[in-house]
Amino acid sequence: MVLFAFLIAEDIAIVLNQRSLLMESERNHMRSELELMQTAILESMLRNDYSIVSVFIAQLGKRHKKVIDLHVVAPNGFVIAEYHRPVTAEHSEDYTISMDIDYGKKNLATVKMKADYREVQSIVTGLNIQMFAASSIFILILGVMLWYTQKKTAIEPLEEEIEIRAEVEEELRRSSMALEAVNKELESFAYSVSHDLRSPLRAVDGFSQALMEDCSAGLTEDCRMFITRIRAGCQRMERLIADMLKLSRITRMEMKRQDVDLSNMARDIVAELKEQDPGREVDVKIQDAMIARADPALIRMLLDNLLGNAWKFTSKTPGAKIEFFVEQGPQGREYCVADNGAGFNMSYSDKLFGAFQRLHTDKEFAGTGIGLATVQRIIARHGGTVRAKGETNKGASFYFTLSTKGGQA
Amino acid sequence: MSENNVILLVEDNEDDIELTVRALKKNNVVNEIITVRDGEEALDYLFARGPYNERPKEKMPNLILLDLKMPKVGGIEVLKVIRTTEALKHIPVVVLTTSDEERDIIESYRLGANSYIRKPVDFVQFTEAIRQLGLYWLVLNVLPGKR
To answer: Is the dihedral of CA A285, A291, A297, A299 positive or negative?
Structure first.
């Protein structure tokens, strides 16, 4: 903008300069015209032929449109000849030129001409337009160059950045759609598994029972025992299927984080365990006011598993003790469920969290081995970690963290 | 249990048919049990058309045991038709199925099933379920008079 103003100022200066030059040359030109007539007028006046003077004047006036009027005046003021041009609308600045008609030292008359600068005007206007046009083109070119530079240095990198981001977004969208698809597949898989596996299982169980009932006459004690074991196998398989379904549901379930009182939850669970097993005496210590940011349903399942395990594996321990507390560890708040029960051999600890992996036989402690796998999955969904410490017959401790996503872990 | 009552068992699994009939018999259900193997057959029987167009009126069932997972016309479809047909909509329908998926349960009740029972794997439990079923629907429950 400054540039523009500067250019305009310069243009105006140039034009003004040109204008005054033009005006001067104009006057000179007209003066010459007058002087051409000087001799003729003089001779006419010496002959006392004043009408010729009128003719000369009229000719001059008619020839140059810029002439407004012409007067030939005698020294005493008498107007010898004159010419008027009818005033047109186009009236600009005017000037007057005087020329004396002298005979020797005697002044016979004075010719006065008034004319305007209309020709100058049109030239100046033309000049103005040209200068303006030139400046505009110059500015335009400058502008284009500036814009081009801007584009290269700022706009284009930005555009590239936007494109890259759009691509990344597209990728993310595709990934999440693929994930959705996989989840849907898993869901229908779990669904058909539960149905398709259970049907033949029911047949095996049912007909074994039918065998027992209808053919008992022909069955020995051993035969009946076999049938009992067949049925037990069926029940066990049914439990495995149910657990597997539960495990798959954990991964598919929607998670909603909120503040959960783990202490209260644990107390509820222990109360339930006591109800189902009223004969047992277990010393349970739960730290107060442990609040965590987690999905309540999933955390409930997790504590069910950990506390249920602790309860189960201390069933053969006199003076059973279970503790649930939280510690500040290197990775943040670490929760711990510890018991002094059957424990486990640390050298097998890497098998601990595998699905269906067990470190005890079903006879020692009933179970399908899905509990800790469930625990691990729940922790994983919360972005935390889980680890275990144990010693055979001395007890086990399970430590877990929940990720610090938005506040308290 | 009235001998005139007919039970329609809609089930495609041969083993389940055998076990269900056995369980019913074990619980002194002496009603006639008609078995059809898919939804299409079930509707044919109910409307007395196709292969069943000679079915006499007295043989309209008083209780329908309906499995959901069947080829051709499935249980849900059959349920829909029963509940939207004037002549059929009064018949008690007990959904007897393996599925415990929430959506199946909801859908069945939404479409007007009277009851939803999961077939347990344990046969003893299964028999007990059938016994209670039979007791309720065939003895305790009062049905409208036969048309």
So the answer is: negative
Please report the number of interchain residue pairs, chain A to chain B, with beta-carbon separation below 8 angstroms: 57
- Can you give the pLDDT at residue A182? 81
Is residue B71 within 8 Å of B101, Cβ to Cβ? no
For chain A, how big is the Rg over CA atoms in Å? 57
Q: Given A201, A207, A210, which is nearest B121 (Cβ)?
A: A201
Q: Which residues of A fall within a CB distance of 8 Å from B122?
A: 205, 231, 234-235, 238
Q: Of B25, B101, B123, which to mutate for an interface test with A (greatest number of A Cβ within 10 Å)?
A: B123
Amino acid identity at A247: L
Q: What is the pLDDT of residue A132?
A: 80
Lowest mean pLDDT across A139-153, A347-361, A382-396: A347-361
pLDDT recorded at residue A339: 93
CB B11 within 8 A of CB B67: yes
Is residue A204 within 8 A of residue B124, CB to CB? The reply is no
Instruction: Provide CB contacts within 8 A for B102, sequence distance 6+.
Output: none
Any A CB within 8 A of B16 CB: yes
Q: Min CA distance, A198 vs chain B (Å)?
A: 7
- Ranges A109-113, A280-284, A405-409: which has the least confidence: A405-409
pLDDT value at residue A63: 84
Beta-sheet strand order (sheet of A106-116): A79-84, A67-73, A106-116, A94-103
Are A199 and B22 in contact (CB < 8 Å)?
Answer: no
For testing contact with chain B, the best of A189, A196, A209, A212 (most B CBs within 10 A) = A209
CB A289 within 8 A of CB A270: no
Q: What does DSSP assign to residue A350?
A: G
What's the maximum distance between 2 C-alpha atoms anywhere in chain A? 176
Segment B34-47, tens digit of pLDDT: 999 999 999 999 99
Which residues face A300 on adjacent strands? none
Query: What is the secondary structure of A120-174 as a DSSP string?
Result: HHHHHHHHHHHHHHHHHHHHHHHHHHHHHHHIIIIIHHHHHHHHHHHHHHHHHHH
Predicted local distance difference test score (pLDDT) of residue B127: 83
- Reading the block at residue A288, the tokens are 């107060």
Task: Tell me if chain A has a CB within 8 Å of the CB of B122.
Answer: yes
The enclosing H or E element of A242 equals helix A221-252
Task: Give the integer Cα–Cα distance in Å for A218 and A304.
Answer: 46
Nearest Cα neighbor of B136 from B107, B121, B115 is: B115
Question: What pLDDT, on the 0 to 100 scale, is given for residue B4?
Answer: 67
